[in-house]
Amino acid sequence: MSAVGSEEGIHPRLRDHFQDLGRQTHAARLGMWLVVISEVLLFGGLFALYGSYRAAHAAGFRAAAGETALALGTLMTYLLIVSSLFVALAVQAIRRGAGRRAAAWLGWAAVLGVVFLGLKGWEYASHLRAGLAPGIYYDHPALEGGGPKLFFTLYYLMTGLHALHVAVGVGLLLSLAVLARRGRFDAAYHTPVELGGMYWHLVDAVWVFLWPLFYLLR
Amino acid sequence: MAAAEELVAPAPPDYLRSETTARSWLLTTDHKRIGLLFLGATMTALLVGGVIALTMRIQLATPEARPFDALTYNRLFTLHGVIMVWLFLIPSIPAGFGNFLLPIMVGAREIAFPRLNLASFWLYVAGALTVFAGLLYGGADTGWTFYPPYSSTTPTAVVPILCGVFILGISSTITGLNFIVTTHSLRARTLQWMRLPLFVWSIYATSVILVLATPVLGMTLLLIIVDHAFGLGVFDPALGGDPILYQHLFWFYSHPAVYIMILPAMGVVSEVVSALSRKNGLSYRAIALSSLGIAFAGFLTWGHHMFTAGMSSVDAAIFGILSMLVAIFSAIKVFVWVGTLYRGSISLEAPMLYLFTFLFVFSFGGMTGVALASTSLDLHWHDTYFVVAHFHLIMVGGSLTAFLAALHYWFPKMFGRTYSARAALWGWALVSFGFVFTFFPQLLLGNGGMPRRYASYPERFQTLNLVSTGSALVLATGLVWTAVYLVRALRSGRVAENPWGSRGFEWRTTSPPPVHNWEEPLVVDDAPHQYWREEEA
Predict the structure, then answer these.
(1) Which residues of A are less than 8 Å from B248 in CB distance?
(2) How far is Cα B470 from Cα B482, in angstroms, rounded to an integer?
(3) Which chain B residues contact residue A16 at CB under 8 A?
(4) Which of A28, B445, B510, B520 would bridge B385 by S-S if both were Cys, CB 3.0 to 4.6 A apart?
């Protein structure tokens, strides 16, 4: 990439404290990897909590996991994985300089993200109607005890934090799609698309761990 | 490349004089100015936290709960801890001196992400204001550790303070990220890793901890926030939760946070010891790698805060041994510093004086730490003034002393002026004397059984408490005195480019540095502080 930058002289996107576009891209990617790592640790605290509480309340957690909508959760997993594929295709497209095609892939990925959020909201609503609420608000007489209460507290906290990340990601993908459509990126410079893609894959990967914990381990 | 005619043009203005409007400071993306903003903000926090500390010492001059009742006293020590840990100790050296120096030291023109850097500063301000907003609502009375179940149920203003700390966490994560990327991506081409200034190594190791540990703290505090605000009871045993789990999560961050406070201090010492004894360090590798060793081992020691919280003796023994491992890395550093001094040409300037205080007090802090890491002794000392004295020996004796050493060492670098050496000598004497006699009596008090976090105490402890309170006033006088002569030196100090004759990389550019740090790119053919060459020549 630095070769492309130097052939064309100084790229307009090169900030003057970097030696060349290659180093600048490297810095941006490294920065994004650090963001990803810190996000993993942010969720890591919650996963540690889940692990400890599951060990303490194995039966209660298993029973509570039976209350979540397995088919819906699985569908949402497919949605996110397919949207990640679209983002990867967008990155492939922009690497060839195909801005409009990249914008289309990004747009479709965002649409899938919105559908995911809609399904998640619908699922929350149906749980709350059944009294499967967090902590002291829990009101589901068929399934009593500390385990299910903690399970649903963690369920809302972890999937809620994840949904927040999906919402931010949808915003990112849409703004990247607009910029790509306006021709702001080319084969030499498309770092924001790559970074936005990394973020979206992270959001996807976190869900891939949430899915078994809250839907499959029943 | 500079054209020939530019050589006769007058030198461009330095970073202080290039623009002077308030806007040019508050919205600056220059890492040097942001460093100074952080220094100003963190020293303001030090002032507030210090005034609260003095208030508590005055309360403890007499055994009775006077002038404050227990609840007010609880709020005071909570606020003191929150301000000193999150508003002063964690950001002071990394975000202040690190911001100013790290890009210069690696030969960069700017930090990797200048606008993020500015965002980090304003997030710090927002976090600090949120914490102070909590103060307006009466403050919290939980101690800076916010242990549940009490923190989830206390009627005091836990939520705004924790939100403030959460925002501060984002600020320091961004700063750490910026430092790591700058060190990797913006190093001068000739600057290899094993030639980096040792201050850069220590800030790099600190940044790794900041990026890895802060998110876990953020998450943990968020859980307390939702617990307190909505009564979810994540850590409430009545709902199946486990309060001890909070302590694990909290200390997983907050113990490494101790190394966030001390590693940059060690970096400062490594620079000062070479520059002011005119010797290259005894072992560069030992210092650089032990910084990474501390950063790594620091993640495995959090359990030693919980020996009395129902931990199995096997776990306690493992955590104890791992904690002592950190002492080995620290001791390696102390020996290297002392070995560097040996047969050096030591000049007793202010930074070197503070370095001596650091070595003396830090050794005590470290050794009491090893003692506390042994389970049997910890059971006796847990929650007594012995622990208070131990961590103040590290945090104040280590970090604050190194902060003052850094301030005196790099003052000419930052402002191109120097201060009165005589005034600095007095300041150092007051601070060091005050410090030692504030906290050493507390070791004895703790060993005698005086518990921490109480507004009153049995009468037999009064003599030592009086010594501690009196010395704290001396320490405060020394700090105020230091602030006065340094502020005076900003305007009227003697102009000085490099009064130490230091061979650190940052001194190769002018003082104060130009806007983009380097008029000509930094070219390196060896590690910094190679003083033996001038003797050969």
Answers:
(1) 48
(2) 19
(3) 109-110
(4) B445
How far apart are the C-alpha atoms of B450 and B447, rounded to whole Å?
7
Residue A19: closest C-alpha in chain B: B186
Interface test with B, best of A23, A47, A49 (most B CBs within 10 A): A49
Q: How many CA atoms lie within 13 A of B410 on its CB side?
A: 29
Number of Cα atoms under 13 Å in the Cβ half of residue A170? 16
Using the structure block, give the residue that is written with the tokens 């220059």: B30
pLDDT tens, residue order, chain B (537 aa): 444 444 555 667 899 998 889 999 999 999 999 999 999 999 999 999 999 999 999 999 999 998 999 999 999 999 999 999 999 999 999 999 999 999 999 999 999 999 999 999 999 999 999 999 998 888 899 999 999 989 988 989 999 999 999 999 999 999 999 999 999 999 999 999 999 999 999 999 999 999 999 999 999 999 999 988 888 888 988 888 899 999 999 998 889 988 999 999 999 999 999 999 998 888 999 998 998 899 899 999 999 999 998 889 999 999 999 999 989 999 999 999 999 999 999 999 999 999 999 999 999 999 999 999 999 999 999 999 999 999 999 998 899 999 999 999 999 999 999 999 999 999 999 999 999 999 999 999 999 999 999 999 999 999 999 999 999 999 999 999 999 999 999 999 999 999 999 999 999 999 999 999 998 889 998 889 988 765 555
Pick from A35, A147, A149: which is nearest to B177 by CB? A35
Residues in B closer than 8 angstroms to A46, CB to CB, are 219
Classified as helix, coil or strand, A115 is helix
Tokens representing B159 are 């939520």
Amino acid sitting at position A96:
R
**CB neighbour burial string for A136-157, b if at least 16 within 10 angstroms, e if fewer:** ebbebeebeebbbbbbbbbbbb
d(CA B165, CA B277): 40
Residues contacting residue B356 through CB under 8 Å, at least 6 positions apart: none
